[in-house]
């Protein structure tokens, strides 16, 4: 944002010199990136008087104009202008003058006659006047007066950087001047009296939540006139073009009060005005000629026939002000900031008005802005009359925050008294109601006592707060059980030879059909960077598969990766976040020398058992009757802990693997829930007594799976049986033999052979029901 020193001085007559202004801006939290002088190129442009005008002897469209300068000398200049006759006073730029467009003048021969410099038109100085080619000056200034003197001398421009919270209310010259005046205890120039709206039904607000306050003023103006010189000077310094008095004054109010205005040509509006949401596929041709397609999320200003403007962002070309416009509708509104922000981001229209409304404006400016506009147009002789006006809506209620000076002192680390804090807050526009602080309506950034403490510090200056080291009770850092558990899981998987990856939690909605994900459970991102990342992932496996696809498209390498990350799902109106461990393994030989052994699904089942064993989960694998649709039904097992299925291990269907450019893929997916963490965070004490191992060679029928043996033994609830695992499988004439190793251990005593034999007998008796016998 560019701020003019001269403009600040309109509101703060006793404004100090620029160096102090820079220090003051930095005290109130505004960074000054750079300062530069403006207008110095006008110091050589001087006022002269025409004494003679003769035709050019070698041209029928050029003239020789003799002008008297300030010290009495006469200079002859060649010009092609249609005016500039004896007695008229003009602006003359001698050689060496640099014009606003960047040209530096010199002595130039025109049809054989030297012309030192040139006589200037308003446009060549960047200004507008009424009629004629050259700028005929009718002011009382003596000859030799420079143009810089006429416009009030040089100006200093401050290039300021506004942080997001400061920008919500300090995006106007008057608000900056108000805060500078507060910290320097300087009085502000009186503001104009608020505009008194009439009670006329000029507009209908159909979306009051998007437009809480809407004012409309009908003005009759004189065409062919231009804006006052002081107004043109301020706008040019800020980098604006001079267009039309009705447009120039709205640009002035935009930066002066922070209130964007818009002017409609009454001839092109079929009233009353409607402030409504756009219709689907409704189109609007903007002032810059661009055609945009609207939807029901866009707020528009419309008449009874069509949309006239994209509310708070840019007007339409069909209702714009023209040079011959004599009657205008002046729009003064307070729009809801989020709606404007979303619209200008969606359409890519970052106009000055959109930036102001998108950050939030002062609702009271709806009443101040028309008063400023009518005053300026009246002083310039442009305003004929105020025809009619009307306002719809109400001011938002003032917000209250409890005044807690002790808390502010604690936050700032100061011993200032209560009155010093009241002085700071009142200086920045706050009021007090008993023990409550009344927040100004334009301070959209203030929400709590922390914001009040920040304003107290800004008012008195952060340099006046002595630096102090924080103090408090120190203690040893302690990781939570959840973090510790997840780190242990990562360590176990990494120690088994798998590489950890970290992927984004955003997902592509196109993955949902492939993995049978529920559309109702998906969590959409409000403002996604791209459509491919417009939802949050419901499962971690698709993210790993995308990593596999990326790597296989660049290197033909075996995939051995894992990730432990967040997954999301919507349950009713709530969004639930969970944690999942995902492991992906390509079931094919690696392209390496010497060749590595081909990976199999047993690598993953072994990893599952390894996890159970190392983490002390006491889990096991069992048949999975209803596996996910993207998993091979005959090559999958459920992972069960304490009777609860927490995941699965198996091989993906071939169509899924080929979709990600791999012939065969195995995966392990495990939910990391509170039950697992509790088991690890509260481990039992190791037993002081020795363990006993027994190997049983069993003859089992072909139809009996190993899982049936595990379930049958679990039903016995043998407290001293700590573990059971298969160690050998043999096929002979007698059938199938499976050798299992049983580990017994007690926390109370050393087990005897008789006690272990008793428990083994119970196990064999239980297995006999499955036609399982001991191998002889």
From TrEMBL:
Its main location: cytoplasm. Mg(2+) binds at residues 445, 451, 454-455. This is Phenylalanine--tRNA ligase beta subunit. NCBIfam families: pheT_bact. Residues 687-775 form the FDX-ACB domain. It comes from Sulfobacillus harzensis. Its cofactor is Mg(2+). The keyword ATP-binding applies.
């Amino acid at each position: 944002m560019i701020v003019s020193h001269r403009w600040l001085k309109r509101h703060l007559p006793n404004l100090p010199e620029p160096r102090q202004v820079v220090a003051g801006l930095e005290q109130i939290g505004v960074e000054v990136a750079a300062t530069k002088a403006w207008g110095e190129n006008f110091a050589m442009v001087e006022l002269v008087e025409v004494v003679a005008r003769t035709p050019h002897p070698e041209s029928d469209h050029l003239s020789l104009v003799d002008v008297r300068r300030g010290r009495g000398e006469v200079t002859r200049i060649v010009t092609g202008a249609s005016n500039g006759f004896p007695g008229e006073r003009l602006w003359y730029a001698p050689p060496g003058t640099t014009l606003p467009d960047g040209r530096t003048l010199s002595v130039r021969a025109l049809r054989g006659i030297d012309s030192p410099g040139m006589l200037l038109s308003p446009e060549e100085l960047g200004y507008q006047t009424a009629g004629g080619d050259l700028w005929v000056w009718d002011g009382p200034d003596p000859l030799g007066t420079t143009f810089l003197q006429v416009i009030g001398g040089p100006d200093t421009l401050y290039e300021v950087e506004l942080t997001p919270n400061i920008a919500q209310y300090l995006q106007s010259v008057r608000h900056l001047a108000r805060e500078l005046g507060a910290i320097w205890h300087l009085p502000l120039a009186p503001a104009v009296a608020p505009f008194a709206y009439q009670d006329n039904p000029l507009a209908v607000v159909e979306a009051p939540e998007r437009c809480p306050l809407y004012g409309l003023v009908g003005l009759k103006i004189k065409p062919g006139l231009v804006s006052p010189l002081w107004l043109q000077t301020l706008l040019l310094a800020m980098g604006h073009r001079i267009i039309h008095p009705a447009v120039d004054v709205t640009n002035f109010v935009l930066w002066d009060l922070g209130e964007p205005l818009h002017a409609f040509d009454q001839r092109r509006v079929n009233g009353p005005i409607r402030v409504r949401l756009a219709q689907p596929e409704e189109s609007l041709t903007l002032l810059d000629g661009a055609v945009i397609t609207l939807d029901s999320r866009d707020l528009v200003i419309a008449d009874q026939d069509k949309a006239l403007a994209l509310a708070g962002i840019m007007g339409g070309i069909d209702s714009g002000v023209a040079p011959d416009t004599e009657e205008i509708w002046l729009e003064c509104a307070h729009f809801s900031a989020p709606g404007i922000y979303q619209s200008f981001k969606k359409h890519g229209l970052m106009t000055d008005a959109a930036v102001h409304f998108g950050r939030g404006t002062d609702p009271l400016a709806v009443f101040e802005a028309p008063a400023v506009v009518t005053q300026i147009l009246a002083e310039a002789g442009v305003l004929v009359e105020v025809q009619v006006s009307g306002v719809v809506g109400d001011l938002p209620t003032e917000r209250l925050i409890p005044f807690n000076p002790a808390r502010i002192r604690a936050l700032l680390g100061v011993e200032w008294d209560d009155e010093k804090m009241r002085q700071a807050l009142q200086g920045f526009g706050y009021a007090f109601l008993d023990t409550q602080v009344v927040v100004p309506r334009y301070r959209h950034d203030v929400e709590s006592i922390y914001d009040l403490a920040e304003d107290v510090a800004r008012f008195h200056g952060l340099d006046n707060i002595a630096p102090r080291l924080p103090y408090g009770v120190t203690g040893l850092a302690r990781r939570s059980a959840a973090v510790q558990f997840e780190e242990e899981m990562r360590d176990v998987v990494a120690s088994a030879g798998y590489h950890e990856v970290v992927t984004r939690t955003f997902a592509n909605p196109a993955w949902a059909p492939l993995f049978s994900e529920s559309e109702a459970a998906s969590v959409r991102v409000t403002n996604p960077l791209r459509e491919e990342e417009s939802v949050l992932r419901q499962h971690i496996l698709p993210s790993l598969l995308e990593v596999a696809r990326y790597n296989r498209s660049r290197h033909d390498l075996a995939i051995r990766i894992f990730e432990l990350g967040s997954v999301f799902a919507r349950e009713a109106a709530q969004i639930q976040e969970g944690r999942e461990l995902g492991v992906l393994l390509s079931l094919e030989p690696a392209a390496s020398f010497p060749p590595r052994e081909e990976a199999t699904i047993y690598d993953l089942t072994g990893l599952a058992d390894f996890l159970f064993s190392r983490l002390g989960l006491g889990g096991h694998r069992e048949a999975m009757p209803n596996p996910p649709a993207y998993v091979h039904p005959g090559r999958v097992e459920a992972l069960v802990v304490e009777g609860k299925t927490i995941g699965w291990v198996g091989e993906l269907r071939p169509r899924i693997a080929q979709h990600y450019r791999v012939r065969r893929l195995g995966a392990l997916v495990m939910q990391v829930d509170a039950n697992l963490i509790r088991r690890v965070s509260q481990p039992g004490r190791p037993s002081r007594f020795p363990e006993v191992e027994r190997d049983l060679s069993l003859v089992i029928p072909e139809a009996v799976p190993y899982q049936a043996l595990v379930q049958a033994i679990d039903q016995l609830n043998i407290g001293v049986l700590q573990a059971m695992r298969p160690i050998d499988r043999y096929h002979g004439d007698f059938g199938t033999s499976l050798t299992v190793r049983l580990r017994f251990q007690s926390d109370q005593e050393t087990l005897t052979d008789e006690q272990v034999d008793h428990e083994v007998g119970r196990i064999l008796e239980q297995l006999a029901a499955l036609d399982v016998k001991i191998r002889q």
